[in-house]
Amino acid sequence: MTAYGPLSLPTPTPETQNFWAAAGHGELLIQRCRTDGTYFSYWRKDAFCPTCRSADVEDAVASGHGFVYSFVINQRDLPGILPPAPSVIALVELDEGPRIAAALSEVQATPEGVDLDMRVEVRFDRRGDFAVPYFVPEGEK
Amino acid sequence: MTGLHDRSVAIVGAAETDNVGALPTYSALALGQEAARNALSDAGLDWADVDGFATTNPQPWEAAYYLGIQPGWVDGTMIGGCSYLAHVRHAAAAIASGAATTVLIVHGESGRSQVGAPSYGTGASSPVGQFEYTQGLVMPNLVLALPVLRFLRDRGMSRRDLAEVVVAQREWAHLNPRAFKRDLTTVDQVLGARPNAYPFTSDMCCLVTDGGGALVLTSTERARDLRRASTPVVVIGSGERTDSALASQMPSADEMHAVSLSGQDAFRTSGMTPTDVDHLMIYDAFASIPLYGLENLGFVGRGESGSFITEGHTRPGGSLPLNTNGGGLNYTHTGMYGMFAIIEAVRQLRGEAAAQVADAHTSFVQGIGMMYAAAASLVLSNEL
Questions:
Q1: Closest-CA residue in chain A for B247?
Q2: Mutation site, B119, B122, B130, B135, interface A, largest A CB count within 10 A
Q3: Contact B149 A71 (CB under 8 A)
Q4: Same domain? B113 vs B132
Q5: Tens digits of per-residue pLDDT, A85-100?
Q6: Are residues B329 and B343 in the same domain?
Q7: Which of B232, B265, B298 is at the close of a domain?
Q8: If you placed Cys at B306, which of A22, A138, B161, B197 could pair as Cys (CB 3.0 to 4.6 Å)?
Q9: A44 pLDDT exceeds 90?
């Protein structure tokens, strides 16, 4: 635990236990509305669809693929969270629709090193008892 | 029965700390105390006249005791930097309904020196803690920069449009002796500044300063009896909305949704439209926010915010003076800047601003708070 800074590890709550448990198995969990098919990425104990407010929703394993919707280049070293600065944090739009903010690795952390719309896929960073999602360019080993 | 927005409630006191900037001999509480004293003096009122009190952090009980008051109406609404706009709205409702007669709203923050500065970080178990801190989104510059490249590209705009925001506002700061950054600048200078959360450079990020500000509100009827030179400024419209703080939950990179909604509420309640506004303040924690504000509030169409600023409409002499104190980018930014945006609007409507705008009768003030989580808006007027 001591290798990780105070902000690097999540403190799961009842609504996010499934998400973090799935991440530990290498699965990116989102939720799906069984009424209108909307996928979403905000966790509630009594979950409901953000579009139609139906409570008939289920956990769903995302494909883990998507594209870079937007990104920022971070200039600060954040040990245990990101590689040494500069580093990239992206807003990834998953193929199912929801967006997720996550580190983007295996790219040059320069304005030219990342393209908007670039295809990416999820990986998981082991941090003690947790696994935290990040993304790499699609097809990256 | 008087109403919240029918010009029956006035801002009669508005003042800042004697200085803003680097003030290491003041705690956050002391900054609030000096601002409160100055605002009461400005209003021609005394501590004994105050029966309503609003503040954020330090908490209202601590701040009220520090000031030596035990108000009968307390508002501790803490929704980040726009809290004080919400306080004005709440105070106006309290005064209009008779719950309070004279409300003091106080901000003091030792953002730069961190003297007696309370923490307002979000916990590790919150959604932000679990899904943003763990990804390195630990500072406002990163979180608010995140959608900006998409916002710009979808409009055919570029980082030059961000830089123009800074250049335009520096022209206002150049006219303001209290501004932290006063030297005129250029797009190339702003783009060449130190990288900070690309697409931002350090010049596109707000200052971090110490300071405070305070407001005194009472009924317009009572304001007429006060022995004071300044024009009362009346509240004619307002709004406040919340949203998720998470960047991932934005409807799209086009919109800060709470800003759109609180702005619509303020226009609706005031009966005004953007063309009626003479003077505009948009909380500019970063250079992107005025672009969002101009578009999301309907002052310009989608994609027109950059050219609107580049063409000079928001600069001295322009048709829509924007962030006329220099803004959080150039004037001062203690952390929760909304108080300073309100005070600048009051100064403009009183005709007392450092960079005074001619014929300003209606001012629109837009605040944001806790990243995307909150927004509040005010429409103020000097026509009673």
A1: A101
A2: B135
A3: yes
A4: no
A5: 999 999 999 999 999 9
A6: yes
A7: B232
A8: B161
A9: yes
CA distance B319 to chain A (A): 33
Residues B58 and B161 in one domain: no
Per-residue tokens: B151: 């916002």
Which residues of chain B does A6 touch, with a Cβ-Cβ cutoff of 8 Å? 124
Question: Which residue of chain A is at minimal alpha-carbon distance from B128?
Answer: A10
Could you give the CA distance from residue B158 to residue B152 in angstroms, rounded to a whole number? 6
Nearest CA in chain B to A92: B248
The reply to whether B174 and B214 lie within a common domain is: no
What ipTM was reported for this prediction? 0.96
pTM as predicted? 0.97
Q: What is the DSSP string of B125-189?
A: TSHHHHHTGGGT--SHHHHHHTTHHHHHHHTT--HHHHHHHHHHHHHHHTT-TT-S--S---HHH
- Predicted local confidence at residue A3, as pLDDT: 57
CATH assignment at residue B45: 3.40.47.10
Do B147 and B19 share a domain, yes or no?
A: no
In a domain, B2, yes or no: no
What would the pLDDT profile of B24-54 be if each residue is shown by its tens digit? 999 999 999 999 999 999 999 999 999 999 9
Q: What whole-number distance in Å separates Cα of residue B118 and Cα of residue B142? A: 22
Residues B317 and B331 in one domain: yes
Within a domain: B1: no
Task: Give dist(CA B24, CA B29) in Å, integer.
Answer: 13
Q: What domain range is B46 assigned to? A: 9-118+209-232
**Average confidence (pLDDT) over B162-170:** 98
- The end-to-end CA distance of chain A, in Å, is 28
For B295, the 3-state DSSP assignment is helix
Q: What average pLDDT does range B165-190 have in this prediction?
A: 98
Do B226 and B243 reside in the same domain of the chain? Answer: no
In chain A, residues with a C-beta closer than 8 Å to the C-beta of B253 are 69-70, 91
Instruction: Supply the pLDDT for residue A1.
Output: 38
Domain identity same for B15 and B132: no
Query: What are the φ/ψ torsions at residue A58 (nearest 5 degrees)?
Result: -140, 155
